[in-house]
Specification:
It contains 7 helices and 13 strands.
Length: 250
């Protein structure tokens, strides 16, 4: 690797671990790291992760590759992040502090809610482009609003953001005050209307109605920067992008 060679950071937050690869423009791997994460399987339908742990696992991966690269970190031009796209979390709008566990894409705790609103399946598919499924975000977010007191209190105080795991991680990792998302992650909530520029909580779909006092997400295309990721100890500062797929590499 030459002293002036551009480098790129690939980050993958998965169901078993978080991983990082630093690559050259030709695809050669120059540094990598992997940090396992915990999974709480509470029942056949309930699967959770710790939101702060997931964010910290990515930071730890970055620290590890930064130590291996040393001053070459300055040559990292951009970073891409892939996540579990149907996983959701709720957090405080003002601080970015997680209010709930991450409800995994595998979580189906709100399947009964989906079952009782099957008459709206065609409407949901028409508006969102996806079939109704408890694996997607909307019913899990509805469950949090109905069952988690901290979420209810934040909603009443107009201090609630609910949405995809990717949006929470972007906020934590870039230390941004904005809540942003990309079309791929937004669509998996079942709340994003096709061709809209924000996640819409459509009151015409009764099982997602009453999402009042929420924070809208600004939807960016995947080729736009979602913020600046800084690692001050190693002079690492780069633009962060969200990936269109569930993983950046295999």
């Amino acid at each position: 690797m030459s002293d002036q060679q551009s480098l790129f950071l690939a980050l993958d937050q998965g169901g078993h671990s978080s991983r990082a690869l630093v690559l050259t423009a030709t695809g050669d791997v120059v540094a990598k790291a992997q940090v396992p994460i915990g999974t709480q399987t509470l029942s056949d339908t309930r699967v959770e992760h710790s939101a702060p742990e997931l964010a910290q696992s990515l930071l730890t991966c970055c620290d590890e590759v930064a130590k291996k690269l040393g001053h070459a970190c300055a040559h990292i031009k951009s970073a891409g992040l892939a996540t579990q796209r149907s996983s959701i979390v709720c957090w405080q709008r003002s601080t970015g502090t997680a209010l709930t566990q991450v409800l995994s894409w595998q979580d189906r705790r709100a399947s009964a809610l989906i079952d009782t609103h099957q008459e709206q399946s065609e409407l949901v598919e028409h508006l969102t482009g996806l079939v109704m499924s408890p694996h997607y975000g909307a019913s899990k977010l509805r469950w949090c609003l109905d069952n988690d007191r901290s979420v209810q209190e934040a909603l009443a105080a107009n201090n609630l953001t609910i949405g995809p795991l990717a949006s929470y991680l972007v906020r934590k990792l870039t230390q941004s005050q904005s809540d942003v998302c990309d079309p791929a992650n937004a669509s998996r909530t079942l709340l994003w209307r096709k061709c809209c520029c924000t996640i819409q909580y459509n009151g015409s779909i009764t099982y997602i109605s009453s999402f009042s006092n929420h924070r809208s997400f600004l939807i960016y295309t995947n080729d736009r920067s979602y913020g600046i990721w800084r690692c001050h100890h190693f002079c690492f500062r780069s633009c962060l992008f969200l990936a269109k797929h569930d993983r950046l590499y295999s």
